[in-house]
Amino acid sequence: MTSREEMVLAPRRARHARPPLRAHAARWRRAVMRRHTVAAGVLDAALSSLASFAVGLYAARLLDPVQLGAYALAFTAYGLAVTVPAQLTFTPLEIAAVSYQQPVRLRFIRRSLVLGGLSTLLPALAIPGWMLFAPRAIPIEVAVGLSVTAVATAIVSPPQDHLRRMLHIAGVSWCATVVSVVQLVVVATGLVALRLGGAPPWWAPFGALALANLVSLITGLVLARRREHAAAVPAIRITDVMRSGRWMLLTSLVPTGAAFIASVIAAHIAGAAILGHAEVARLSGQPVMVLAIGLAATLGPGIVAAAQAREPRRARRVTTGFVAVIAVAAGAYLALVGGRWRWNPLAWLLPNAYTIPGLVAVTILANVTHGISYPARVEALGAGKEVALTKVELVGNAVRVAIAGAAGVLGAFVIPLGILVVGVVRWLGCRVVLRSHYTGKVP
Question: Which parts of 383-413 fold into alpha helices (H)?
Fold first, then answer.
């Protein structure tokens, strides 16, 4: 080839060499954006969980064991109430939003809040029904105060959670983080104000959380409105939304309903005070669950995609990392706070968590079983095994309710042991279900 031909072909080769460089730069930018999004998602979950932890810490330090047992029952009823709108309407709406174009998702937030907001009212108004099952040792003024504030929280909490998830879906994850920051600040301010104002302590936990959720919800709506673009929002019917959310609702209601039944049985057999001790231990073990939820939010889509594509090796690679992180972190956390010793920060922060020796350690181990069952549950949902997963939940939670009958012997340990059994049964059951999914054989 002559030098003249080289001069002619060189620019062409250069032009052909540019696209790979641009492609590498684009991939690098996408990777950086993903890392920023994951960081915002984990920070959002951590801040929101910290707000709930602050509320529980306030209750643990200012309520006596019987009042704290009443708070535990009301909190379980509250969890049951918020599960209904979350799974029946808000989760299907979030799934629908993923199929829309990016500009449509922000505009869809307000419509989804209107559609799903109606489903929060009836479950929230049913919360005071827990008083019918409460032990007589619980003072009526405590039960009424907890019920009224829990109803208010259950009305605004599901829309606030949905708003934050929709902000992540719309690609403005840092706005969701701002919402959680506002929530945490208002919770802390509200608890201090109620304490200085001399309000009865049983009005403060749910009362501050309701105010924080309302203020942060308004903040999120303002942030979303400022970033909206003109786009047509597709019409969607609430009946179609509820139809798709029925199985998800049933799968989620089983464990929350079983938790309430087990708590009622334990309270009547061994007294409301054991629920108070178990509630403080639950707060001590909460960081393990926060880590599991954060990992599920970031690694869950990859697990779902692997299950849908029937790629067990790919799914196993992600779930193995998930379980390894949970095991290492939980082991370190158990060594730090499992017992009452000099360098344990919870021994000062939550001293009554260690009134019953070993309760915190058993609670952390129970949360570990729940944490390592998360990826298996997500994988089963990705495989479209909602019906089989519901059966697994029924088995595990039936055992949990049966264990509650031994509260007279096991005392406060009956609560974390029930959680431990549910985690083990869920993990084993999901393994069987997934084996049939990948091999095509009926279990």
Answer: 386-404, 407-410
For residue 438, give every residue at least 6 positions away whose Cβ sits within 8 Å of its Cβ, in sequence order, or none. 310, 312
Place of tokens 């031909």: 5
Cα distance between residue 178 and residue 220, in whole Å:
8
Query: What is the SS3 assignment for 83-110?
Result: HHHHHHHHHHHHHHHHCCCHHHHHHHHH
* Residues 272 and 75: beta-carbon distance below 8 Å: no
Q: Write out pLDDT tens, residues 266-278.
A: 988 988 888 888 8
The rounded distance, in Å, linking the Cα atoms of 181 and 51 is 9
Using only the alpha carbons of the chain, give its radius of gyration. Answer: 24
CA atoms within 13 A on the CB side of 71: 28
Q: What pLDDT band is residue 71 in, cutting at 50, 70 and 90?
A: very high
Question: Among residues 94, 158, 93, 92, which one has the least CA distance to residue 122?
Answer: 158
- The 3-state DSSP composition of the chain as helix, strand, coil percent (nearest 5) reads 85, 0, 15
- Token representation of residue 26: 């684009």
- Least Cα distance to 121 among 96, 165, 89 occurs for 89
406 has a pLDDT exceeding 50: yes
Element counts in the chain: helices (H) and strands (E): 17, 0
Rounded Cα distance, 295 and 323, in Å: 10
Q: Torsions phi, psi of 309, nearest 5?
A: -85, 0
Crossing angle of the two packed helices 140-169 and 65-85, in degrees rounded to 10: 40
Could you tell me the sign of the dihedral formed by the alpha carbons of 268, 273, 279, 284, in that order? negative
Which band of pLDDT confidence, cut at 50, 70 and 90, is reported for residue 215? very high
> What is the CA 357 to chain-centroid distance, rounded?
28
Give me 413's structure tokens: 């340990």
- Structure-block tokens of residue 118: 């109606």
Residue in 241, 254, 267, 240 with CA at minimum distance from that of residue 390 = 254
Give the residue ranges of DSSP H helices in 140-172. Answer: 140-169
Structure tokens at 87: 């799974």
As given in the structure block, the two tokens for residue 229 are: 């673009």
The first and second tokens of residue 401, run together, are 């309710």
Q: Let me know: does 288 contact 331? Beta carbons within 8 Å.
A: no
